[in-house]
Here is the input.
Amino acid sequence: MKDFLFVYRADYINQPTASPEEMQAVTKLWMDWVGGIAAQNKLTSPGNRLTSGGKVVRPKNVVTDGPYTEIKELIGGYSIVKTATMDEAVTIAKGCPIFMIGGNVEVREINPM
Amino acid sequence: MEQKELIPHLFRTEYRKIIAVLCKLFGIEHIEIAEDIVSDTFLAASELWGLKGLPENPTAWLYAVSKNKTKDYLKRNALFVQKISPAVKYISEISEELEIDLSIKNINDSQLAMMFAVCHPCISTESQIALSLNLLCGFGVDEIANAFLTNKEVIYKRINRAKEKLQIEKVKIEQPALTEIDDRLSTVLTTLYLLFNEGYYSASQDEIIRKDLCIEAMRLTLQLHENNNTNTPEVNALLALMCFQSSRFDARTNKKGETILYEDQDKNLWNDELIHKGAYHLKESSKGDQISKYHYEAAIAFWHTHKNDSKEKWETILQLYNRLLQIEYSPIAALNRTYALAKANGKETAIIEAEKLDLTDNHLYHSLLGNLYTGINNIKALDHYQQSFDLSRSATDKATIMKYINELRK
Here is the structure.
């Protein structure tokens, strides 16, 4: 089994405001999806969700607020799954609820070294 | 109680207490001596009581005789006295009257110390369970073999290997220091959890043995609850789980010993007292800031005590399974989660998820798919139930599955 990192990206800034019910429904989709991966014994870590604020530290002590307003895709969170092959990891990623808000999942094999 | 029932009863309740006190006194190296002394005591009881009738207070008689036998043993074996703990040596040197403390407090302390010794990570879990049943619960080798559907020799070997291992590792029979409790307690809880499950899900047909295993697991967990140092939120969560599960004991089999599945049970047979006790422990378990798998399992079991089906009930159970599986995967949790998914999100969704589970050699997997396909594709349902029937090993399981097969063939 190999570990694969799922990086969730989406344009979180320009999402229409959701009602509490809609947010609840989205949370359920995520919970059921991650629960489904865990039920296949293929979840190494549910990972974390990231808050929207942040800083970027650049050479020469230059610190800026995250370059978030300029880019369309923000990292919103990550998880780690374990599968035998990249293809299998990709199959799992295809069920991710992020596509409903126009986002994407980057699938990267974790180098065990 | 009749005399012929009394000795086995006392054996069950008192054997383990005297053993614990003597083992704590002598140390793990001399378990056999403690066992010999207590066995001799019970042998004497069965002979003498048969001839002369019962003493006024049988328990006190057993304590007194085992004390005397211990003192005799120590007198006869000066060499042994020199080897065992300095405390005993000291006491026996200064006084002819060696005090063997069979007070309730010392019995409880000794039993707790024994629990930590027996559930030591150096021995395998199956040995821990067998040894727990033997030393902590006073089960005979026959009864343990019956519960595990195996023969006496296997259990006998398992127990002896475990004892040897504890002796080689020089495991101390003492209550672990406060700082160690967190570490050691989780191993103890795992053993008690498995012991309970052994009773609750065992393939053994013997309903009495199965119930006994559950009761013993609860009794030992309750002992942890009654001691301030070990009364942790996790212990309460496990106790809550055990109470909720046991509350359905009388409803889950019919008079013929056949299993009645959850949804077909007579809910009036659920035990309210145990449900209330479970609710109390569940509340106690929420005091810390850690959530263990026992917390999730207890919460799932709590929702199962709700008699009416509702959207909320199954949605909550599903989310609890989602979280439980993220902490610890088990095939049974994965299957139960998929059942909850069917109840919350519909059978079609659940079938897609079930077929991803890769548990095709598990009879419960096929039972689940048989259930999900029923009414959607009865040919597939029948096929899965048939596979489940072929894979299952217990006669009660086969009988239950056969009912569904006959139902579908109508």
Q: What stands out?
A: Residues 20-39 of chain A form the longest helix (20 residues). The first strand of chain A starts at residue 2 and ends at 10.
